[in-house]
Predict the structure.
Amino acid sequence: MQVIIFDDAQQVAQSAAEWVAELINKKSNPVLGLATGSTPISLYQELVNKHKAGELSFSNTTSFNLDEYLGIDETNEQSYRHFMNVNLFNHVDIDKSKTFVPTCNNGENPREQGLAYEDKISQAGGVDLQILGIGANGHIGFNEPTSSLSSRTRIKTLTQQTIDDNSRMFAADEFQPTLAMTMGIATILDARYVLLMATGKNKAKAVKDMVTGALSAACPASALQLHENAIILLDKEAASELEDQDYYIWANKQNLKINREFGLYHNY
Ligand code: GLP
């Protein structure tokens, strides 16, 4: 894991945007894995700004979102499809027919839908760079604690903690889903690079468990310890429970020196 600690959330977003821009500018048919939640919104704003400044085109990009609520359709303002439209897709030149969200509508077989999503990712050549946030309970996508570390796209029942955490997005009398389709942990680990963003004090414990805790289904994000190219972008607050903060800051300086001398090498 490469843990990089920034002064604030804006710097986290700017760094994540540089990673995305590098991939898109380098590869002819980039495949992005996308996340929802409040954390990546500032990343999407940075990407929209780059696009509007003429620095970034999404015309050849294919995207796969991590997850989607069940029980609401894509026209519902609470759907993650809607979230992606308003935060990114409507403001850039991406071909929406190449943007995918794992859905399972009424009457559809969830197993078949999960397998079909996995197939679509494979047919696109796999995800080059997967953007991730983290739940306060250590979930990635909607892989809640107890998720199999080998899981694939499927339905997950949300924990009460996640339902409570996300209730701030819903009006008091609004239907709040308790089920979701989500890429599995093995699906996420298949990406060539994973870029996890975490900001704020309420993520500090989950970040500590992910980076230095036991590899365990109790903290699904700890599975990223097994990934060859896991980049963890943190603000100071999210990093505040890490014991080795000075080491990460020092090691990052060495990495920057190595990159300056030998050039960046990302094996997309
Ligand atoms: C949701 C999403 C996750 C996201 C998490 C944290 O439950 N399924 O992908 O990482 O919430 O969200 P936030 O960034 O709002 O804290």
Summary: The CA atoms of residues 29 and 60 lie 5 Å apart.
